[in-house]
Design a protein that fits this description.
The structure is a homodimer. Chain A is mostly helical. Chain A has a single domain, classed as Tetracycline Repressor, domain 2. In chain A, α1 packs across α4, α4 crosses α6 and α4 runs parallel beside α8. The longest helix of chain A is centred in the first third of the chain and has 26 residues. The first copy, chain A, binds a DNA duplex through α3. Chains A, B: GO terms for molecular function: DNA binding.
Amino acid sequence: MEVHPRARERLLDATEDLAFTQGVAATPVDEILRSAGVAPATLYAHFGNKEGLITQALERRLMRWDEVWQSAIDEASTPRERLLAVFPALGRYRMSVPAARWCAFLGVAAESPHPGPQLQKTLASDTQLLTARLKELAVPVVAADHADALVAQLVLVYTGVLGMLLRGMDTERAVGLGLHIAGAVIEAAEGSRR
Amino acid sequence: MEVHPRARERLLDATEDLAFTQGVAATPVDEILRSAGVAPATLYAHFGNKEGLITQALERRLMRWDEVWQSAIDEASTPRERLLAVFPALGRYRMSVPAARWCAFLGVAAESPHPGPQLQKTLASDTQLLTARLKELAVPVVAADHADALVAQLVLVYTGVLGMLLRGMDTERAVGLGLHIAGAVIEAAEGSRR
DNA sequence: GTCTATATCAAGATAGAC
DNA sequence: GTCTATCTTGATATAGAC
């Protein structure tokens, strides 16, 4: 078979294409190898095993999501818009990467009852980024002692948007719904401050 | 090995215990058989294959959820309470059955990129029940032309609650958050009617 | 209908050459 | 680092007796 110098990147690309759309367990390593045009031993040389491959594909994905979200925040002009930017960012992000069926991180978490330490850490870093950044963005919008509660609510709404994708809703509509609900939630939080 | 006359029920119980907590693919048939104390051939005689077993376990589960939800609605005393009853019902339901890690239906959907017709139908019937019943309950609460939009929002919130379980939140807190957000969403919908 | 024993097969992972 | 070829395992499903 042909030799591919960028085997590593090709494997990560194929993993995003296949494992994050069909599910990890439903995607045999063979299929990833065929799609990447790479030999088995190459995969194991780079990633150790299948879980290592999945883990590093998630890590690369998280970096991209981080960038997309951050730039959406940078473009927004009010504290409220910055807090809500996570929703349009999600819409934009999903057009820029091989679309997971819903959420690559939650999807992998759902089928990994006993993740190894590395994978566990990577999965946690997704929720970590989500809550930490929302917290920063919430502080200018609501009173400090309401920020944590508001963040928890927004994380739930954001997670709900992802879940709607799994229920078959298209991205635009799910994001629009999420934005609307998040708006109502913020109103209510602002109201409770007065 | 010992003979079990209620092999069918035992298999469904074991499936709920194992497959809906660990994930379907992560739960070998052998493990279900061992847990049920039943022989392989018995399983295949009753259910045809693994997917058949999963499907029927989901169907039984949906019937129970239906009952729990309906009785929570019956206990509520105002239209608004009846509409919101889905949240406390979820909390009660999860204490009454072997707890899936988050949601048995969404969990199976997430790892089944190509479900067979029976499984597909069963998975759809979950979302179907959710939206249809919420629609009935929403009509007395908001103007008719806002009911569909409100239902979509509540389905998202409900789905978000389930997703938070997957993110590791405990049931009580997730349900409480969902109830709070749903309240805000309904306020906003009522407001837009005025 | 249920059991024991086993067939079949696919999947993850490795050996060894280049 | 990458390839070809193969090993090993573990999982789904079936055969045949009771």
